[in-house]
Specification:
CATH architecture of the largest domain: 3-Layer(aba) Sandwich
Shape: elongated
Number of strands: 12
Helix content: 40-55%
Strand content: 15-25%
Length: 306
Amino acid sequence: MIDRRIKFRHIQCFIEICREKSLKDAAEKLFLTRPAISKTLKELEDIIGVDLLTRNRAGVSLTKHGEVFLHFAEMSLASLQQGLNGIGESGTAGKTRLVIGALPSVMARLIPAVTTNLSRLAPYVELKILDGSHEYLMDRLRLGEIDIVIGRLGRPDAMRDVSFIQLYEETVEFVVRAGHPLIDAPDLRRIGEWQVIYPPQGSAIRPLVERYLIANGVGDFPNRLETVSGAFGRIYTRQSDAVWIISAGVVSKEIADGLLVALPFDTSVTKGAVGLMQRAGVVPTPAEQMFFHAVRNSMNQIGLNG
């Protein structure tokens, strides 16, 4: 009789460790931390009552018991995948719902490609995408209303009870319309002469922006507009003389197309991590794992390096 304590996550982690021959590489492949995957493997070995793998400097290797278990574990996983494919073909009644929170830094740059890839990899997953400020999305994540948040790493207090796996890094940009007076005479101390679109309280980049401005001797702005809306910022900045302070990922396409221009300020100190966030201690479901694979594929396609 099958021990009910054995879960899908145990099988999946064991197989991935065997494939990668490394706990570290398997953890990265599954978007888990090293301690989390080690704990899952130990749980499986404790349940079965035997050692499945031996650890050494070169990585890991299968024991005799591990070789036997791997054969049937792979068969089980293959059968489960066939079942999931069957659900995907059976229509919406069998769909798995996945709720994603996307911060502005990834909504325009990464999420469209991820959605396309996920539709191809896992048509049985019904995706719901929410946007908003970092504070809002993290609160929804902790309440269990959102499964995954993807975006900038927040302040330590904002990341309470949340795990974070980094994907890449990006900086903050000061963006204006084509033909703006600051393009020919860029001066950080002069941006207050125009309206400034500023990151609101609770946004991930606000502390970085505040420190950057203080370090460069730039004071408060007499005409400041605060918003987290990328849709508003893109249109308003093109139609006005406003200076928009925003994560590079939000406006990467507009800059590439020449619709907006990033002022040549050295904002390297605003560089911050962008990654995947889940409730701490939660092991990703099969649908969430497929989302992670879609993220990795999308990053490769659009040239985002981790």
